[in-house]
Write a structure and sequence with these properties.
Layout (H helix, E strand, L loop, with lengths): L3 H31 L1 H12 E6 L6 E2 L5 E13 L7 H15 L3 H9 L9 E7 L1 H9 L7 E10 L7 H4 L2 E3 L5 H6 L7 E3 L2 H5 L1 H5 L3 E7 L5 E8 L6 E4 L3 H18 L29 E7 L5 E7 L13 H7 L14 H4 L9 H10 L11 E3 L2 E3 L5 H5 L5 E3 L13 E3 L1 H7 L2 H13 L6 H7 L22 H9 L13 H7 L10 H13 L2 E3 L4 E5 L5 E3 L2 E2 L6 E4 L6 E3 L4 H16 L3 E3 L1 E3 L15 E8 L10 E8 L6 E7 L9 H12 L43
Parallel strand pairs: 2-10
Antiparallel strand pairs: 1-8, 2-3, 3-4, 3-5, 6-7, 8-9, 10-18, 11-12, 11-27, 13-16, 14-15, 17-22, 18-21, 19-20, 23-24, 25-26, 26-27
Helix pairs in contact: 10-22, 13-16, 13-17, 13-21, 15-21, 16-19
């Protein structure tokens, strides 16, 4: 007979067993009735594998349908990073993969450490592998656990460096943009636009991903396809850029910069008229960089936009390692050597005399000049500020400003009595110094000049559909205070906006800065009677799958348009009275055709020599030279803006060549070439696909020069602006 203690023990065991049974039954019920769907999903996930299908990216065409960004389907071998987390496992796997992928172990290690690839996703081992290589790996999945073969699209840029600053390139999602792209449903390992149109129109170009869900066995081998959702390709893009003209613009710009590098800059002279011994007797222009923009001033469409130095977008799809990439695109703080900068939208430049047309407009439109277009100023080569007392001038305050030096006399040029038209034609600095002083002092130190030139878009971004645009700067008290606060200028200097600041402002110097796209747009407003556009490099977004009518040429007439970008461009209108606009335009026309002015002797206009035998469409324009660091002549930069006077050919252009000398001899010839090409008066080379990319090279882009550079030839040796 059992004792009481034995009975109690068995009783406790029985209670525990019953409780355990009840809990087990409850759990079974819960799994069946409550979490059935979740459980089935877990089971399915274990038994299946989802492969994301990347959509074909939309193609990019030039205005005539040339395919300038295309796609190629490639096979990519990738590996789950968890499989190679252990260093020994990584070494063994890379040794096994080296042969089938025909890739050295060292290269695989380099790829694993490459910061371009997200650490949380599958690591790409080799791009563009053959179908034979892919089949070999997939048939031996047991030997290569974690290895997967993926289909991807590789971006192709058929014309290499041509238009690369406009078209842009693709790359891995950057850390600072990861959250944004995640919110749009992007995979962390997707490649996205990082520059140019590829970046601006990323969402349009990307498309919608699809996926395939496979049934797999216990070791991960595919048994069947459970579900497939096809990806939707991205929209195509039609540019407003004519790539044949774009190539010509790049050729003209690069050729002229190389020419200017072989030219001697003027000697630095002491007041006594002898060479300054601090500087070498012979110095050449540096001419390291520049840009040129051509746009249709009736629509705001950009037809060519060149920036130098160039780069070849194909380097971003060449699958070179990080070390090689750093050789091709070295990081530098030297603005002269920056390759990945579109100077047309990001260049921060003083404008020199190319800014004077807008100052003349401001003076006439504000009523600052007594008699308006009949106002005359007696230019005797120098101008003394009237608002500064003599005693302050004697104490070192700069009160006297002068014109450029004339070769004939070795002294500041004297033009005698000049009106607005003549002052623009010969680029009289003293005429504009007076405007700069009086438009400030006679208006109670109000920002009259600033207000008027802002109408043309200066000091604000144009909102061109390209990234990294610089807004430009307008000299004023607030801006000077800011510069003083960050140490860019002396703190004392930043306390007030002085007459001298406005005087420099009036000739495009001092704290004024703008971009070539702003200048081309502003000259366009003078040409079209006052309309300021938001410039556009994209004409239209097209439905996916635009067909080709020939190899490399899209069938644009039969393409389906999603939206017309240029038609949606915002614009503002500047009211322009004839008595204000006409003298400005007449002055700019006279820059090209002459005549100059007679005083002491005949003074030619700043463009008269260069355009003496010009045979293109009639144009009006203005030269400019921006003084560089320490006022050393080899640091002077060159500017020229112009527009067509032919209503049937509504083009405006602006060129800026850094540290290349006078505007008439450096920038103006580039614009001259562009207008000759637009007039069909100069041969433009055919556009052909680029030579194969040489990955052994350390150059980002091959040099390109004009086949016939004679359109650049100038007799403007006596130019002074």
């Amino acid at each position: 007979m059992a004792t009481d203690s034995q009975q109690r023990r068995w009783s406790r065991i029985g209670i525990f067993a019953i409780t355990l049974l009840v809990l087990l039954l409850a759990r079974i019920w819960f799994l069946q009735a409550v979490t059935k769907d979740e459980t089935e999903e877990v089971i399915r996930s274990v038994q299946s594998r989802v492969v994301k299908l990347i959509p074909e990216r939309g193609r990019i065409f030039d205005v005539n349908g040339r395919v300038v960004a295309d796609n190629k389907r490639v096979l990519v071998a990738a590996i789950d990073r968890r499989v190679i987390a252990d260093p020994q496992d990584r070494l063994e796997m890379f040794k096994r993969l080296s042969g089938p992928l025909n890739t050295p172990v060292e290269r695989l290690y380099t790829r694993a450490e490459d910061k371009r690839f997200n650490e949380l996703t599958e690591m790409p081992l080799a791009f563009d592998i053959s179908e034979e290589q892919a089949a070999f790996l997939m048939e031996r999945i047991e030997d290569y656990p974690g290895v997967a073969i993926k289909e991807e699209w590789r971006r192709i840029y058929p014309f290499g460096a041509v238009g690369s600053h406009v078209v842009g390139f693709l790359g891995a999602i950057q850390k600072d943009a990861a959250a944004y792209y995640k919110s749009l449903g992007y995979d962390p390992n997707e490649r996205v636009g990082l520059y140019g149109v590829e970046l601006t129109y990323e969402v349009d170009l990307r498309g919608v991903p699809g996926f395939v869900r496979y049934e797999v066995d216990a070791v991960g081998r595919i048994k069947s396809v459970l579900e497939r959702v096809e990806p939707q390709p991205g929209n195509d893009i039609q540019l407003s850029i004519d790539f044949r003209l774009q190539q010509f613009a790049e050729q003209a710009l690069e050729t002229q910069l190389l020419v200017r590098q072989r030219n001697e800059a003027p000697k630095v002279m002491l007041p006594e008229g002898i060479p300054d011994p601090r500087y070498e007797e012979v110095n050449y222009y540096k001419a390291p960089a520049g840009s040129v923009v051509v746009m249709n001033h009736n629509t705001g469409e950009v037809v060519a936009m060149a920036s130098y130095p160039r780069f070849d977008a194909r380097w971003f799809t060449a699958s070179v390692d990080a070390e090689k990439f750093a050789q091709v695109f070295p990081q530098t703080d030297d603005p002269d050597r920056s390759i990945l900068v579109n100077r047309a939208v990001s260049g921060r430049y003083n404008l020199g005399s190319s800014f004077k047309p807008f100052v003349a407009f401001a003076a006439l439109n504000s009523g600052q000049l007594p008699g308006g277009d009949t106002y005359e100023f007696d230019d005797r080569g120098t101008y003394k500020l009237e608002s500064i007392p003599k005693d302050r001038c004697d104490q070192g305050v700069k009160c006297v400003f002068r014109n450029a030096i004339c070769r004939a006399t070795g002294a500041p040029c004297r033009y005698g009595k000049v009106d607005v038209e003549e002052a623009l034609a010969v680029s009289s600095d003293t005429f504009f110094y007076k405007i700069g002083e009086q438009i400030l002092t006679e208006r109670g130190y109000q920002p009259v000049l600033e207000t008027e030139v802002r109408r043309f878009g200066f000091g604000s971004p144009t909102n061109v559909d390209l990234p990294f645009e610089f807004a430009g700067t307008i000299p004023n008290a607030a801006y000077k205070k800011y510069l003083g606060s960050i140490g860019a200028i002396a703190e004392d200097e930043g306390r007030a906006f002085y007459v001298g600041d406005n005087v420099l402002f009036s000739i495009g110097q001092g704290l004024l800065s703008a971009t070539p796209i702003q200048m081309a747009n502003a000259y366009g407003a003078l040409a079209n009677g006052g309309t300021v556009f938001e410039p556009r490099v994209v004409r239209a977004v097209l439905s996916p799958g635009t067909r080709n009518k020939a190899s490399g040429l899209a069938d644009l007439p039969n393409a389906s348009v999603v939206k017309r970008i240029s038609e949606e461009s915002k614009r503002s209108v500047i009211p322009m009275r004839p008595d204000v606009l006409e003298p400005v335009v007449s002055g700019l026309r006279r820059v090209i055709t002459g005549p100059g002015v007679d005083f002491d002797y005949y003074h030619k206009t700043t463009g008269e020599n260069l355009f003496r035998n010009y045979s293109g469409m009639p144009i009006a324009g203005k030269t400019g030279t921006a003084q560089g660091f320490n006022n050393l002549p080899w640091n002077d930069s060159s500017a020229f803006g112009a527009f067509s006077m032919d209503a049937t050919q509504p083009y405006s252009a602006f060129a800026y060549l850094e540290k290349a000398g006078y505007g008439a001899v450096a920038a103006a010839p580039v614009v001259k070439c562009m207008f000759l090409a637009l007039s069909k008066q100069w041969r433009v080379d055919d556009l052909v696909p680029a030579d194969p990319l040489d990955t052994a090279s350390n150059l980002p882009a091959a040099t390109t020069r004009l086949r016939n550079p004679m359109c650049l030839v100038s007799s403007a040796l006596d130019a002074r602006d």
